[in-house]
Design goal:
- This protein is an alpha/beta fold.
- It has one domain: CinA-like (Maf protein).
- Helices cover 43% and strands 19% of the residues.
- The protein contains 6 helices and 5 strands, in the order αβαβαααβββα.
- Helix 1 runs parallel beside helix 6.
- The model has no long low-confidence stretch (mean pLDDT 95).
Amino acid sequence: MDADLVALSAALGSAALARPDQRRLLLATAESCTGGWAAQVITHTAGSSAWFERGFITYSDQAKVDMLGVRLQTLEKFGAVSPETAVEMATGALKNSNALISLAITGIAGPTGGSPGKPVGTVCFAWCRVGEAANAESAVFAGDREAIRRQAVVHALRGLLLRLDAA
């Protein structure tokens, strides 16, 4: 793992543990196109079991439905790569874990699968905290499959770090 990802992992751990109320802030991930890479980065830091609760790898639409409770209507209307699906993934990760905050990543890493409306590199993200509405956003990353996936992981974890720091 490169130095940037190692530093991001350590920063997430520090932020999750640096709580004024001394309460552990457990994290959960719901990943599709990144295949567990975000969870791998989080768990790179020794002691991460103190802040990482679990990760869901829901690559297929059926896995999103079965494991996270994403509604079929959402998938049919908006597609698997949409802010709406990302929100349901993040919300489902919280409902199916003991975590207090979650992130979701769903996208098109390529080299195929893109369309004019959703080109290769399109990735949708969501972050959700227990008791709050989820926040979602989309980005389009350039590069090959590996580069797109890495950029998605970094973006998702930086977004999580911002939310942890704001808590």
